[in-house]
Design brief:
Elements (H helix, E strand, L loop, with lengths): L2 E4 L14 E4 L9 H11 L1 E5 L2 H10 L5 E4 L6 H19 L4 E4 L4 E4 L1
């Protein structure tokens, strides 16, 4: 795991508490496809961070790499979402080392080996 790939459906946190590199999908072109993002993450050792269920479904079928963090939370104001994500991030990153999928809900996490 060399870094994170933030999906276009999420804002780019400016200072996510991680030592990993952070790339936002918008840096890779105008609305890159899910298949492109999957392949890019796979080739570059990145974890996909998304609210999109398509990546969760794909990891179940294809397996890692890449690994996926699926943020299963409803709509929030940007500032509220980023504050919530910062609080959750240390536990999320710790769970990534042994799991292909980390589902993060408002009040708990589920992991899939």
């Amino acid at each position: 795991m060399k870094g994170l790939l933030i999906d276009e459906n999420l804002p780019l946190p400016t200072a996510l508490p991680t030592t990993l590199s952070v790339t936002h999908s918008r840096q890779l072109g105008d609305q890159p496809s899910d298949s492109f993002l999957w392949q890019y993450a796979k080739e570059n050792g990145l974890v996909i961070v998304t609210k999109d269920a398509d990546f969760s479904e794909r990891i179940q079928l294809a397996g890692p790499p890449p690994r996926v963090v699926h943020l299963r939370v409803g709509n929030m104001r940007r500032a509220e979402f980023i504050q919530w994500l910062y609080k959750q991030w240390p536990a999320i990153e710790a769970a990534l080392s042994g799991h292909k999928l980390v589902n993060v809900y408002m009040d708990h996490m589920e992991v899939v080996a």
